Amino acid sequence: MRILITGAAGFIGQITARALLNEGRYDEVVLTDIVEPPVPANTKYPERARCVKADLANPEEVASVVGSSGLESVILLHGIMSSGAEANFELGYHVNVDATLSVLNCLVKTCPGVRVLYASSEAVYGRPVPKTGVTEDDIATPEMSYGCQKIICETYLNDYTRRGLINGFSLRFPTISVRPGAPSAAISSFLSGVIREPLNGQPCVIPLKDRAWRHWMSSPKTLVHNLVEVALKLPREALPLHRRSVNLPGFAVTVQEMLDALEAVGGKEAVALVEEREVPEIKSTLYSWADDFDNTLALSLGMKKDTSFVNSVRDYKDTLEASR
């Protein structure tokens, strides 16, 4: 039994691959990205990983990655993040839409009925959006190209699933914090940077002066649990065949709560490294994001949510210290 992860060189791809290579459910875990992904360190079954460099917009390269048999599940994590997709219109559509459709069309031919988990985003929601309790029933009105690209791919997934070509689920990710590594091209990157950089002794800028501003987030640990332990095991009939989108569980965290968590774990010296500075060109986007979701659907499917941002910060600090 085989599973494929696209975008596997990225942070979410790596921690998802690590979880799968530790549990031994799959005989082969295929990792692919535009650069050759590494095998995650300290895994129980590293020999089961196959790492492939591929351009997923190229049908021939996709076919070589997918193979001809035994592919049980696919997790689509590749993509150009929000500000990157907004800055480069053509590249955003090429990577986020064309490459995704290329993979889906290959799967239909070689692995009909295969389970596909598509990493969508809460960026599909824009104004007007309810101030509280956003659900999957609320109309998605994205205000960025990135969100538009996600809705396009969700629609493909719905139709391909309805027709029995795949067994797809579109999972709308909250912002994942705290992410290690270098800042990403996402506008929301500062939501990890506000913790990551100060705990590494580096300065960080929060691009607004509003400590009551809040955002919907999930820890990496909880995200991987919901992917590996729940979404990969959902029966086809868990959702209507033409409505396959799920808002993954998260919780709202204000800027003040982020700073409080940073101080609780890193002390006042860490908070002193944070600068609050308005960045007018992204202010409208920041305030367009939904910040309060009703996760009843996800929780009914067996997913779980975080309850403390301080715990997320402590998890990151533990990971940081273990890597030193």
UniProtKB/TrEMBL annotation:
Top-rank taxon of the source lineage equals Eukaryota
The NAD-dependent epimerase/dehydratase domain covers which part of the protein?
A: 3-217
List the keywords (alphabetical).
Carbohydrate metabolism, NADP
Any keyword Cell wall biogenesis/degradation? no
Q: Which Pfam family would be a valid example here?
A: Epimerase
Residues in the signal sequence: none
Quick check: keyword Transcription in the entry?
A: no
Identify the PANTHER family for this entry: ADP-L-GLYCERO-D-MANNO-HEPTOSE-6-EPIMERASE, NUCLEOSIDE-DIPHOSPHATE-SUGAR EPIMERASE
Protein known as: NAD-dependent epimerase/dehydratase domain-containing protein
